[in-house]
């Protein structure tokens, strides 16, 4: 069960770090008309098309104490990043960038600019507009981003193996444990872990899909107004 | 001297679209900003609201400077207190009608804001529908909520961006009446962007015409429609009977013009125009009357009968029934241009007017308007 704990811890950290980043970058990308936008988007999407081993290789090079960035991290942390849990979190954050940013960017792209302008004309500050208008109308994207990042981190294999190695209790995640169990013909453990991942993935995807078909919390708002008028 | 609470706008910009507009609107006045699609009407409205920042603009409203590059003034949209109704209303889809209005209602206490919002919704005939979500409202109801939301801010100016374009004809007529009634109690400048001249005639006090980003003429609606200042303005307000004419003589009470080969046409005097100058004559369709059906003859049938009546003859080139009227396009003799007008269908039947037939029409002198050619 240690592997499951490591995986859950990794997924939680990655989600906590990535979702706010996704919210910021996704919203910015949806609204910006900056020249190099396709290049920035391509960079973010890269982990989707590159083999995990290639991403893992470059991260290994980047984290290596011989490289400039690696020696910088070593100085800060007091130890190299490779084969450590913090290194694993950084790798996981990079690999999951498209899963965090894309759904949020799409949600903000679908938000009509007129609604934002109507809020400004109504006297709402940019922060109030974000809170009262943008967030409630893009929460499905935010939820999709959170679920996808969490689920994908739980199942991540290639990059985790390359950057984290396979250290029991520290970097040995559930997917690596499945691989190890199969290698040592422990099919029962492999089956148990696989079933756990399968059930979780189905639940996560179903949650995203069912929420994308909801009418944006409309019934809740109607209920709120009813209560307000009753007072 | 403009009223201290009026709206004064001067906008000049080259990019992204050319705009050169000057307009003013008094409190209680409804100014219609009219022009074809892409003429820059909405850009002007958005600039007043602060949603666009033009290269050069001076905007003053209610005695307060909103935009002035010389003194470095630029108020944000939130600071301007402009109520705006968007073309598709832009209601917040996740909030009820009441929440939409409450969000724009100023005030610290929730109770006060609630009372204010309910009162405004009642004013726009939305009582009983406060709890409804925008998706369950009809086009007309959505517009009422949008107007209520715009008024909730206690604005200094009300900006309406083609607010009737998203509703059907029947609802539109009802909403015209409601807006006309509502504005009687509003002592603030109202700017309505539209390209519908019927709407303008029904609702607006004054009219500012825009074309290719420039404002042409501003004034009372009837004045601009009946006596446009130039051929361009006449075209923009939908006049078709525009004839280039040459001044033959300036007499004491009228000027004598030549249109094509037709000489001796008496019309109003254009101040400052000299003999030989080219002008544009507008013949109002309402001043045209069928005189009689003439038999085919080679004699010159276009003549001036008396000072107040111009007789023209021609061949009916096109006749189309539009409801209980017949729309006629008459190919005039001696003038290389058609005359368009409508007559009652029963008059057409009585006079046996049909395509290819020749008819005589008379034009009352007061139905002729003269303006600069360009």
Structure characterization notes:
The complex is a heterodimer of chains A (231) and B (374). The longest helix of chain A is centred in the first third of the chain and has 30 residues. The mean pLDDT of chain A is 85. Chain A is mainly alpha-helical. Chain A has a single domain, classed as MetI-like fold (Orthogonal Bundle). Chain A contains 12 helices and no strands. In chain A, helix 1 packs parallel to helix 6 and helix 6 runs antiparallel to helix 8. With 374 residues, chain B is an alpha+beta fold. Chain B folds into 2 domains: 230 residues, Rossmann fold (3-Layer(aba) Sandwich); 131 residues, RNA polymerase II/Efflux pump adaptor protein, barrel-sandwich hybrid domain (OB fold (Dihydrolipoamide Acetyltransferase, E2P)). Chain B is 24% helix and 36% strand. Chain B has 10 helices and 22 strands. In chain B, strands 7-8-9-3-10-11 form a 6-stranded mixed sheet, with helices on both faces. In chain B, strand 17 and strand 18 form a beta hairpin. In chain B, helix 4 crosses helix 5. The longest helix of chain B has 15 residues. Chain B starts with 6 loop residues before the first strand and ends with a strand. In chain B, 41% of the residues are buried. The chains are: A mainly alpha (231), B alpha+beta (374).
């Amino acid at each position: 069960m240690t592997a499951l704990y490591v995986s859950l811890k990794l997924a939680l950290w990655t989600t906590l770090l990535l979702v706010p980043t996704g919210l910021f970058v996704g919203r910015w990308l949806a609204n910006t008309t900056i020249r190099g936008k396709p290049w920035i988007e391509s960079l973010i999407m890269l982990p989707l098309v590159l083999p995990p081993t290639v991403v893992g290789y470059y991260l290994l090079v980047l984290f290596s104490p011989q490289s400039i960035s690696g020696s910088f991290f070593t100085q800060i942390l007091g130890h190299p990043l490779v084969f450590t849990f913090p290194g694993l979190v950084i790798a996981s954050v990079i690999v999951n960038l498209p899963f965090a940013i894309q759904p949020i960017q799409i949600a903000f792209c679908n938000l009509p600019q007129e609604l934002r302008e109507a809020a400004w004309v109504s006297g709402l500050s940019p922060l109030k507009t974000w809170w009262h208008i943008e967030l409630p109308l893009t929460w499905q994207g935010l939820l999709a981003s959170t679920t996808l990042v969490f689920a994908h981190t739980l199942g991540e294999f290639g990059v985790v193996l390359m950057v984290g190695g396979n250290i029991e209790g520290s970097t040995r995640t559930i997917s690596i444990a499945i691989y190890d169990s199969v290698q040592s013909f422990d099919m029962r453990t492999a089956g148990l872990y696989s079933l756990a991942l399968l059930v979780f993935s189905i639940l996560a995807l179903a949650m995203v899909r069912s929420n994308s078909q909801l009418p944006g919390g409309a019934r809740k708002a109607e209920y709120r107004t009813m209560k307000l008028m009753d007072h | 001297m403009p009223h201290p609470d009026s709206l004064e706008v001067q906008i000049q910009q080259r990019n992204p679209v050319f705009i050169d507009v000057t307009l003013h609107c008094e409190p209680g006045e409804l100014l219609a900003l009219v022009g074809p699609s892409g003429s820059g009407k909405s850009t002007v409205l958005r600039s007043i609201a602060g949603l666009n920042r033009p290269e050069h603009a001076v905007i003053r409203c209610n005695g307060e400077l909103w935009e002035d590059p010389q003194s470095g003034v630029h108020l944000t949209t939130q600071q301007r207190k402009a109520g705006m109704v968007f073309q598709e209303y832009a209601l917040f889809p996740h909030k009820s009608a009441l929440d939409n209005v409450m969000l724009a209602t100023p005030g610290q206490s929730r109770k006060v804001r609630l009372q204010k919002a309910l009162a405004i919704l009642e004013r726009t005939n939305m009582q009983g529908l406060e709890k409804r979500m925008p998706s369950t409202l009809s086009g007309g109801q959505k517009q009422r909520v949008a107007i209520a939301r715009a008024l909730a801010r206690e604005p200094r100016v009300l900006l309406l961006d083609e607010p009737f374009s998203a509703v059907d004809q029947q609802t539109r007529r009802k909403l015209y009446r409601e807006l006309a009634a509502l504005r009687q109690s509003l002592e603030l400048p109202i700017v309505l962007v539209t390209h519908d001249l019927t709407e303008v005639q029904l609702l607006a006090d004054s009219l500012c015409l825009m074309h290719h980003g420039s404002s042409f003429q501003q004034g009372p609606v009837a004045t601009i429609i009946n006596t446009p200042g130039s051929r361009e303005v006449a075209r923009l307000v939908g006049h078709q009977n525009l004839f280039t004419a040459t001044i033959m003589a300036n007499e004491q009470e009228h000027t004598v013009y030549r249109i094509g080969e037709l000489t001796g046409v008496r019309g109003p005097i254009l101040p400052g125009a000299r003999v030989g100058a080219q002008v544009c004559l507008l013949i109002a369709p309402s001043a045209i009357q069928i005189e009689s059906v003439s038999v085919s003859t080679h004699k010159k049938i276009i003549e001036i009968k008396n000072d107040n009546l111009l007789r023209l003859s021609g061949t009916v080139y096109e006749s189309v029934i539009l409801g209980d009227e017949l729309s006629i396009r008459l190919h005039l003799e001696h003038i290389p241009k058609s005359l368009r007008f409508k007559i009652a269908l029963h008059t057409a039947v009585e006079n046996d007017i049909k395509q290819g037939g020749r008819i005589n029409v008379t034009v009352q002198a007061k139905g002729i308007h003269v303006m600069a050619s360009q």
